[in-house]
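Treating backbone geometry as a discrete language has practical consequences that deserve illustration. In the encoding step, the backbone of a single protein was reduced to a row of integers, each denoting a local shape. The amino acid sequence and the backbone structure tokens for this protein are reproduced below.
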Amino acid sequence: MCGRYTLGPRVPGEFDARFGGHVDIRALRRYNVAPTEAVPVVRRAPSGGPAGSGRETVNAHWGLLPPWATSRRERLKPINARVETLSQKKLFAPLVTKAEHRVLVLADGWYEWMRREDPGKRSSGPDPGKVPFHHTVDGGEPIAFAGLAREVRLRDGPAGLDPVGRPYGGPGVDERTLISVAIVTCAASPAAARLHDRMPAVLAGPDEEAAWLSPDVDGRDATALCVPLADERLRIAPASPLVNSVRSADGPWLLDPEVSAAPDDDDPTAAAQTQLDLTGPSDA
């Protein structure tokens, strides 16, 4: 499955150059993306998209709402969709067959957990019995999960604002319209299966990403793109136990397995280091 992932620091425009569309840099630099949060996804652009790329980036609510939903409080809102049953499930079948519902969920890694045999005494903090492991591809390069999206119109008030203060879906979208998304999962590769028997369907490269978005690709051929990633492209490393709680302060320290507490805001050295990490590589 995929229940948490990362959108760490990138050079401005790196996701745009890789996937098309335009990702606001303020929507990145996130190390513990969780369900119900707004996440950037790339979809086909009806008007051509930035620089004629044919794609646009919108922000979606992570948790796919059914077509009858009128509120984000709808109980049925899966975060994942199993590729093996996409064509059988009424919630997903109408989406996978139509390219306008297939999206790229942008990321640069994801987490899975291993259960400790002797977790010790449970405290009020993150679960000590769960050890998070961060999965990256090709040394931490940007990746795209196959995603299925649906727009619903809310009756209980505006859809609200995404993390950078824009209406969900971007400018020009009705304020009551909410785009929601589920990440497609597939069987885990042998390396990933040591932690979990499922993994997000990471599209293998630009050709597969283009095919996933293409109206010339039908539902059967689209699902055939969702296969386990080759082990030689995958790196799995332990992460901080702070990842176990969505209440933990977000930051690059979540990737360090030795960190059990967020840096002290009063520590100027820690604050400076955090700022350096978040700005990404220099232009030099």
Notes: Residues 5-279 form a domain with the hypothetical protein yedk fold fold (CATH 3.90.1680.10).
